[in-house]
Amino acid sequence: MSEDSGPEITAEPPESPFHTTGTDHITLIGSNEADTIEFYRDLLGMPLVLRQPNLDDPNSTHLFFDTGDGRIITFFVTDDRESSAAPLRHQVGSVHHLSFSIDPERFADIKHALEEFGHGYNEFDRGIFHSLYTRDHNGLTIELATDKYDIPDERRGEVLATVQRIRVADGAEYAEAEHLEQALAELGIDSDPVELPDAPTGAGVE
After folding, report:
1. What is d(CA 102, CA 109) in angstroms, rounded to the nearest whole number?
2. What's a single GO MF annotation on this record (predicted)?
3. Position 17 in a domain
């Protein structure tokens, strides 16, 4: 599909029956409680904010974690399910990966913590952001990402839509840092670049 024939890219709400107001939570089928808490609370630093029986299956436990900004990720777990770090097989409807924001000033510390917990990772420069890729205790790919500039949450869609327009006009295949810089300048968003290490472009996790 060419750029000209593709769907419209815009931060404006579409003409639809209704509009969502944000992400409330995402729920995944987890393995057991201990391993889930060890990865998401003890390594990634997400507070466990609610624990109760699964309302649809009281034989399983429902764990709620705050990802850092009040947005919640939850897991259905049971103690008889073993964790398996083998990579997941993807199919239509499956989760490819989850991406969480991290503090760019803690980048080196985060890499060290992953190593200390025995989690391999790959590091990539994604043009407009910088990412570490690892896997949780159940083989789910976890991306730990930071933008190259501090973008206000309420303007992220507007910034990305502007980056898209600039990228297409530039004839570039992917969004690059210079497209982000131009978009921020055009939108009047004053933001300094964050200091990040050099890293290759690419895909995949160890």
Report:
1. 11
2. lyase activity
3. no
Mean pLDDT across the stretch 103-122?
Answer: 93
* pLDDT confidence tier of residue 42, bands split at 50, 70 and 90: very high
Dihedral of the alpha carbons of 77, 80, 82, 83, in degrees to the nearest 10: 10
Kindly report the length of the chain: 206
The answer to whether position 108 is within a domain reads no
Supply the range of the domain harboring residue 178: 153-187
Give this prediction's pTM: 0.87
| Boundary (domain end) residue, out of 45, 61, 79 | 79
